[in-house]
Design a protein that fits this description.
The complex is a heterodimer. By secondary structure, chain A is of the alpha+beta class. Chain A contains 14 helices and eleven strands. Chain A has a six-stranded mixed beta sheet with strand order 1-2-6-3-5-4, sandwiched between helices. In chain A, strands 7-11-8-10-9 form a five-stranded mixed beta sheet, sandwiched between helices. In chain A, strand 9 and strand 10 form a beta hairpin. The longest helix of chain A is centred in the first third of the chain and has 18 residues. By secondary structure, chain B is of the alpha+beta class. Chain B folds into two domains: 203 residues, 2-Layer Sandwich (Cytochrome Bc1 Complex, Chain A, domain 1), CATH 3.30.830.10; 181 residues, Cytochrome Bc1 Complex, Chain A, domain 1. Chain B has a six-stranded mixed beta sheet, sandwiched between helices. Chain B has a five-stranded mixed beta sheet with strand order 7-11-8-10-9, sandwiched between helices. The chains are: A alpha+beta, B alpha+beta.
Chain lengths: 424, 416
């Protein structure tokens, strides 16, 4: 074999360019609009964000149902008409209620900008929450819920969140079958009136934006004002369960789902960037320690991942995998071994370099094109952060030392205090 | 409009380059003309298992992922009935690492018993995770052998059963690799911040010296025409009954392909499809319903699948589906409705051209189908579908005698 194949071609440095083409303006009623003009095709990504997530709900399913019902009928259109029109203009709509926020995200051709704004104003601010559509939606959702409860991943994941954040806090609260009854149009209207206030919306537009875009947004959104005064949602404290280890038995399952982790810091914390680095080393990429050990060396699993994600009031660290039943206790043992190793021994220089370069590449990818830039922007903006969050990430990736990683592991990997949930 | 240049090396390797200066990255896609349809019927799952083994190092490069991660790259792959497809994105400055890694594993992957054993375990866990341990996860394991009696589409890409994967030995892997992983069977596509000239130069340097390898002529058994309806029922302790219906259709190259795609969109595109409006929204028979074509290269399937609401018996639900399909044959769609479906195609085609990875994959697939420039004419092909074409296609394919029906129903014994 020719020897030139044995050596990797020379590598070149490639830091992510974070100076993005961001403009911002304010509509007549104070709505902030962030505009990211970029891309090669005449397409738009349009997103409206509200602080109307699960954390604001007084009972399970309220935030998600209010969000899903937005396209189920408005003052001027029936549910069929709304969906028919969205499809006719090739507008791909995604409605989502997450833990802290609820949003409408849409992808469409630039030439339909005006039509899209007209429709979104109708969907977001003039929904009527018809009772018959609500009843049907809840029946469908109950059906989906029952199917999901058959999945060991879902069973373990739900119990994990309940354990970490506590059953009383919206981050951890579980949905039961009875919750699918009793949501009425008036409860939804109240929630909508409180939390989908036009003045509390933020808009993020990216892509090849037509000249008339600002006029269109001003016309359809800029004059809207809400009638209600926002009543703050009751806040319950985050209080994890004292039982740290639990198994939920599922008859006939051929695999066991494993979830291990704890609450942790979020994006606003100065250690967050370093914690991300530590987490990627442990289980955040294909070459991670967990993946190498449990998949590539032992063949226990198809995949294993460790994530650190941010919520407004907390953060979450979670390791997840599905393994053959017979291997589940060995898998848990190996996971803990890898965590401990990171707490005991500094990461070697060559591994530091791989993790750093992998993360730098990811950062480049998360600024590639208008859609990715908008998603990155939103993920920082949501926490009140600006683009310096990403410059700091780049800086951390390039400068963090093995000693700092070791110290982070000892600060944040509370090995004696981990939640360990299995289902199968 | 996606601009590109095409090249062919002497060993038969095809190279396509789409230069896109708006990105700091390059995507490299390598499509091998080898899928699960090329497997021995007693060793199914081979193509996909080989995909896993391709990541286990070569004689020259012991580890595949490490150098790519050092270069800031990311990669993945998928296998389906027809193709095995590998892709990488990485910063443009380090693109040569992608050429180095991909050419070396086309040349000399290092298959060993030890690596094979591990990947067999990984794949069997994947089998469990995605097909056996999921509600309805094994639907295709039942539906395929019902619809296909001879053609290799009768098994899914993961394999017929874990036992097939267990019995594969290194020689089997080597044989499959030697037969299919040759330059003449590969299409390498680059999209991103690279000039066609530079890409060609690198392709010559890294892929140019790989021997052309053995000539393989695919000769698969054709599926005989189905002449009577087929039914199968699976009893499972699941919270909702489910219905699957599959009809045979023409191959990917058939002029009627786009018509069938339009039909499935009329039926279930977006939230305004007929099946959704009628059976989910109005009649509340299903909690979800889908219609799609499998898009296979050989004659594929049109599939309708839905989860049935509690208290509705599957026969009633099925009758309602058949009724909606009958209307396609009886009445032409309105202009507005047909226009809607075509607009959705245009929108999704343009949207999918915003990413370099998507462009690289689409160019590769169109090249395999005969011409990479298909990427720029697909919208027109959909625009050309007429009401007559829809009615003819529905008449021809969507008949009981051409249909296989699968029910999932709750086990008779009560409780869990």
């Amino acid at each position: 074999m020719s020897s030139f194949r044995r050596t990797q071609p020379p590598l070149h440095p490639f830091d992510a360019q974070i100076d993005i083409p961001l403009k911002s303006l304010t509509l007549g009623n104070g709505v902030p609009v962030y505009i990211i003009e970029a891309g090669t095709e005449d397409v738009i990504r349009f997103e409206c964000v509200f602080r109307a997530g699960i954390i604001k709900e007084s009972r399970p399913l309220l935030a998600s149902t209010a969000n899903m019902m937005l396209t189920e009928g408005s003052v001027n259109y029936t549910a069929e008409e709304i969906n028919e029109t969205l499809d006719y203009y090739g507008i791909f709509l995604n409605l989502q209620a997450e833990r802290d926020t609820a949003s409408l995200t849409a992808y469409f051709l630039s030439r339909y900008f005006e039509k899209a704004m007209e429709l979104f104003a109708e969907i977001l601010f003039r929904p009527v929450f018809p009772g018959t559509e609500l009843e049907k939606l809840m029946m469908k959702r109950l059906n989906w819920y029952r199917i999901n409860r058959e999945k060991v991943q879902k069973i373990a994941g739900d119990r994990f969140l309940e354990s970490v954040f506590g059953p009383a806090h919206p981050y951890g609260r579980q949905v039961a079958e009875a919750d699918f009854e009793g949501l009425s149009p008036s409860i939804l209207r109240d929630f909508h009136g409180n939390f989908y206030r036009p003045e509390d919306m933020a808009v993020i537009v990216s892509g090849r934006i037509p000249d008339s875009a600002v006029t269109s947004m001003e016309k359809h959104f800029g004059h809207l004002r809400s009638e209600k005064i926002q009543s703050p949602a009751a806040e319950s404290p985050i209080e994890g369960l004292s039982v740290k280890k639990d198994h939920i038995s599922k008859k006939g399952a051929v695999q066991t789902a494993v979830r291990i982790g704890s609450a942790t810091i979020n994006k606003r914390h100065p250690d967050y960037h370093g914690l991300k680095f530590l987490n990627v080393t442990l289980g955040g990429y294909f070459g991670s320690r967990l993946m190498k050990n449990l998949r590539e060396d032992k063949g226990y699993t198809y995949g294993i991942h460790s994530i650190v994600s941010s919520f407004d009031k907390s953060g979450l660290w979670m390791i997840s995998t599905e393994v053959g039943r017979e291997n589940s206790s060995k898998a848990v043992e190996e996971i803990k071994k890898e965590i401990k190793l990171l707490m005991q021994k500094p990461v070697a220089a060559d591994e530091m370099e791989v993790v750093g370069n992998y993360m730098a590449g990811e950062l480049v990818r998360s600024f590639d094109g208008p859609m990715a830039i908008a998603e990155s922007f939103r993920s920082a903006w949501e926490f009140g952060l600006d683009m310096s969050y990403f410059s700091k990430m780049m800086h951390t990736i390039r400068t963090i030392t093995p000693e700092e990683v070791l110290q982070l592991a000892n600060t944040y990997y509370n090995i004696e205090d981990l939640y360990e949930i299995t289902a199968g | 409009m996606v601009d590109f240049r095409s090249y062919r090396l002497e060993n038969g390797l095809r190279l396509i380059v789409n230069e896109d200066r708006s990105t700091p990255l390059v995507a490299m896609n390598i499509l091998y003309d080898a899928g699960s349809r090329d497997e021995d019927s007693s060793l199914t799952g081979m193509a996909h298992l080989l995909e896993h083994l391709m990541y286990c190092g070569t004689e020259n490069i012991r580890e595949y992922d490490l150098p790519l991660q050092l270069a800031g790259g990311e990669n993945n792959a998928f296998t389906n009935n027809d193709i095995t497809n590998y892709y990488i994105t990485l910063p443009a400055a380090n693109v040569e690492t992608a050429f180095w890694l991909e050419s070396d594993r086309m040349l000399a992957p290092d298959f060993t018993e030890g690596k094979l054993e591990i990947q067999k375990n990984v794949v069997i866990e994947e089998f469990k995770q995605r097909y056996l341990n999921q509600p309805y996860g094994d639907a295709m394991l039942h539906l395929r052998p019902l619809a296909y009696k001879r053609h290799p589409y009768r098994w899914p890409t993961i394999g017929m059963e874990p036992a097939h994967i267990e019995r594969i030995v290194v020689e089997d892997v080597r044989r499959f690799f030697d037969r299919h992983y040759n330059p003449g069977k590969a299409i390498v596509t680059l999209s991103g911040n690279i000039t066609p000239g530079r890409a060609y130069e690198l392709a010559l340097k890294w892929f140019g010296s790989i021997p052309a390898g053995e000539e393989y002529v695919r000769n698969l058994p054709a599926e005989p025409e189905q002449t009577g309806e087929r039914r199968h029922t699976v009893e499972r302790n699941l919270p909702a009954d489910a219905l699957y219906k599959a009809w045979h259709m023409g191959p990917r190259s058939d002029p009627g392909f786009h018509t069938m795609d339009v039909i499935t969109d009329l039926l279930a595109g977006g939230e305004s499809g007929r099946l959704y409006n009628r059976l989910v929204r109005d009649l509340n028979l299903f909690s979800e319903i889908n219609a799609y074509i499998t898009s296979d290269i050989d004659p594929g399937l049109v599939i309708v699948s839905g989860k049935i609401m509690k208290g509705i018996d599957p026969e009633t639900a099925e009758k309602a589906v058949v009724q909606v399909i009958q209307e396609l044959k009886d009445t032409d769609p309105a202009d507005y409705e047909l226009e809607k479906v075509k607009n959705r195609y245009e929108s999704s085609a343009v949207l999918s051209n915003t990413g370099i990875l998507n462009k690289a994959l689409k160019l590769s697939v169109f090249e395999l189908l005969g011409d990479a420039s298909g990427i720029n004419s697909e919208v027109e092909a959909y625009r050309a579908v007429s009401k007559t074409m829809i009615r003819d296609a529905a008449d021809r394919y969507l008949n009981p005698a051409n249909c296989s029906t699968l029910y999932y129903i709750a086990s008779k014994k009560k409780g869990k």
